[in-house]
Amino acid sequence: MDKKWLAGVDIGGTTIKLAFITFNGDIVDKWEIPTNKNENGNEIPGDIANSIQEKLNEHNQTTNKLSGVGVGAPGPINDDFGSVYVGINIGWKNFPLKERLQDELSLPVFVDNDANVAALGEMWKGAGDGARDMVCVTLGTGVGGGVIANGDILHGVNGAAGEIGHITAVVENGAPCNCGKSGCLETVASATGIVRLAKESLQTTEIPSVLRNEKNLTSKLIFESAAKGDQLAKNIVNKVAFYLGLSIANVANVTNPQKIVVGGGVSKAGDLLLEPVKEQFRHHAFPRVAEGAELTIAKLENDAGVIGAAWLVKNKSGE
Amino acid sequence: MDKKWLAGVDIGGTTIKLAFITFNGDIVDKWEIPTNKNENGNEIPGDIANSIQEKLNEHNQTTNKLSGVGVGAPGPINDDFGSVYVGINIGWKNFPLKERLQDELSLPVFVDNDANVAALGEMWKGAGDGARDMVCVTLGTGVGGGVIANGDILHGVNGAAGEIGHITAVVENGAPCNCGKSGCLETVASATGIVRLAKESLQTTEIPSVLRNEKNLTSKLIFESAAKGDQLAKNIVNKVAFYLGLSIANVANVTNPQKIVVGGGVSKAGDLLLEPVKEQFRHHAFPRVAEGAELTIAKLENDAGVIGAAWLVKNKSGE
């Protein structure tokens, strides 16, 4: 059994990442295919199955080598059926992903939300370091979240647990969010949100800043300018850290995690972001909760999804 | 086995509630004894054991009739050992409650935090109605919380999960809280906090109010005055509902519960409190989370603790 491989699949809006992974969580091989959005994503299960078959051929193996297939998919997932309620970027609606993939490959398939499998990946082989109580926040174009309690992902009653990006961080006069409400953490801590905050500050203040000459403002540039001492950029970083530290503290008061892992493109700012976030976290968390938690940057980057998806197979197939 | 009883014990600062309960969750007998704070609460396990023995005698039974003893105790609990880290009102510090009670009674003992067992009680026989994902908020002198996910209580890494009362609700210029930080939900939604808000408003505004003549202001009186149309009292109720709805929404974004149960003395205000809280909740929760959750008032009142403590015995003894 342990000599078998686990297949991990991470479905994104533009590419699908795939990997064969050992029961110890080591990557044997990894590759990517483009996300085929024809017919509202209807061809995706076939594409994944064909790609796995081809790669098995290259390794002179058959599907017998695989213990099963784990999948991270965008959108809330029906935990009982492994179907995707809504996958906005792909066009899925109540899409029977698990069933379709099982039919194609004749292997057990386990599906969870992409932010959740990334959290499981970090728990298993990354910054979570095996912690059974953990919170993951992914700061990318949006803000995603995955909450692990007692060693497993929280799903909630309709697959929407861990929606940390949509915690109300700005209580008064918050910016509108894609989700329909306003002031969500996503509006101030995603790459897009950080750029929005900077543009707002450039317009409403007279603070001199190197950012005033920039035509293509990015969150990366804002952090770089802050590191060089630019006052306006430093103000923005402090603002982001305030909202992020406050929101993470309020999440931690609910689940009392051992590890809080910050990932995604924005987290590449490293300590420049993490240190002020830690300070705000300690200020806003219940003292006992603050004592118990370690804040850290994610380790696995793009591999978190496929590794977490493989974890699903390893841990759910016995249930 | 099913003809046996479960013993439920709920240890409070002034009284200890006890009950014999069937495996269906029905109360056979319930009674109370005073909380004995001599020697920093050291005599409490003996008091509980003696009281259970006496009551068994009255029923012409021995400890053989009991499947075990469940206990709700104040303060964070070490989940592995059933010891109480700190029980401030009683004087306990790292008190081996489970071990001491087991020695006294020669029965299996299961200990959890009092707010957590109250939540389990509501889940089993009260307003939770068997929901596997649930949030309980208890609005009393303080604000307590219990969070149930996948049918069991969240404890977190050091027993501090579910500390909903210490979520930061007032981000700027919040009042100091007993926990050491400021702006906690407890400072604006506990009975004490509501009275504080009213006093503040009486001092800083000129709004005419029947409360201006009251020497002994209580949260009950504030709700009664609001029901009669008093503008200042109505403003206070709206303020409480705003902070409570916002905080509950942020908790729900983490765990996506099916039921949110509001209990404690302040919850006796009923719809006068619940309706504006629901409105604020819907405004601040992620739409899918708002759809999935039903807000309701707790049903079991003072019995929630002993019933939830009995649930511990029923569900943990097989593990």
Set out the fold topology.
The structure is a homodimer of 319-residue chains.
Chain A: E1 5-11, E2 15-21, E3 27-34, H1 44-58, E4 66-73, E5 77-78, E6 83-87, E7 92-95, H2 97-105, E8 109-113, H3 114-125, E9 134-139, E10 143-149, E11 152-153, H4 186-189, H5 191-204, H6 219-227, H7 231-255, E12 259-263, H8 271-284, H9 287-292, E13 294-297, H10 304-316
Parallel strand pairs in A: 1-4, 4-8, 9-12, 12-13
Antiparallel strand pairs in A: 1-2, 2-3, 5-6, 6-7, 9-10, 10-11
Question: How would you characterize the overall build of this protein?
Answer:
The structure is a homodimer of 319-residue chains. Helix content of chain A is 38%, strand content 22%. In chain A, the strands form three sheets. In chain A, strands 3-2-1-4-8 form a five-stranded mixed beta sheet, sandwiched between helices. In chain A, strands 11-10-9-12-13 form a five-stranded mixed beta sheet, with helices on both faces. The model of chain A has no long low-confidence stretch (mean pLDDT 94). Chain A is built from ten helices and 13 strands. The interface between A and B is large, with 46 and 46 residues.
